[in-house]
Every structure is written in C-alpha cells, then in structure tokens.
Amino acid sequence: MANGVATMSSTPKFDLPPSSSRLPSGEPSMPQPALPPALQAHAAMLPHLLPMCANARIALFAIRRMGAHGLADANAAHAMFAAFGLHFRRPLVLMRALMAEIAGNAVSTVSIAPCCCPRMTAAESTLLDVLAAAETRPDQARLLLEDLLAVRQADGLLATAAAVAASFADGGRPIS
User: Tell me, what's the pLDDT at 69?
Assistant: First the structure.
C-alpha cells in the first residue's frame, strides 16, 4: 500500500519453464502462466483433452449421456440417429449393452464428466482407448478394461466393446 492506495501488479505470475522445454536454438520457450489452485484441481480431475476423432466424440457423448441419465436417454439416441442415419439401432443397442455391463461388473467407480466438459476423465479416455483397440489389439484392450473396472476377467465386456467398435466401423464411423 502506497499513500493509502492499494496497488496490484497487472503482470501475471509465470512458472519457470523446465530445462527440457527449450527451442531448437537453445533459448528457453515461452513461460506458461501459473494456474490458480482451483483450476489445478479441475485439471487433475479432467487430465485428457477431447479426442480428435469425431467418431470417438460421438461415442464419448453417448457414454456420458447414458452414464449420467440412464440407458434410455433420448439425447444419446438422437446423437446416434444423427450420426448413423437409419442404421442407428445396432450401435445404440450395443452401446447400451456395454454401459449396462460396465455398470453391472465394475468393482471400482468409473468417473464420467458432464457432456459440456471440454476435457475427459482418465476413465473416459481409457474407455475410448478400449473401443479403439478392441478389434485390432484385444490383449491391450482386455488389460485396460480389467484395470479400469478392477476385475480379473473382462472377456464378456471385451466382446461387447469389440461389437460396439465393429458397429461404429460398419456404419462408416470407425473409432480411432
């Protein structure tokens, strides 16, 4: 306080960049502004960006809506209809089956974010990784599912996830 007037610095606080974040010329890269503690907590809860693949975003929307509002959610059904046209039933029914199996078999909590969030939880990211790997890398997908749900055998869930991935691919929207 100077002369009874409070002064505040208008320059943001910056964290020093780590030594590994240097430009090719050897100069340090631009410092990143420090996040307030409240935003750091949110960033820890939602550590992943939304997927770049539009098909994976459709699957994520359906997962979030069905996880939060039930298997018969009209918005999830409409999103599937808008994405797949007249052939929306197979991916919708299989996604419902996957969500029901996850809810019935999971030993641990599977966290999902609200639909409006521009980031993903670790569980959502893992589910999308499972859907992307279910057909081509089933062993990796099985391990991811077993870790996510804290179960010893996830063969039934893996088969359902592979069916969901196949239905998306057959509809011209492969999840990658």
Answer: 96
Q: By C-alpha distance, which of 157, 109, 125 is closest to 59?
A: 125
Domain coverage including residue 30: 13-45
Same domain? 27 vs 60 = no
Q: What is the pTM of this model?
A: 0.75
* Three-state secondary-structure class, residue 48: strand
Rounded to whole angstroms, the Cα distance separating 89 from 111 reads 26
Domain count of the fold of the chain = 2
Same domain, 55 and 85: yes
pLDDT for 10 beyond 50: no
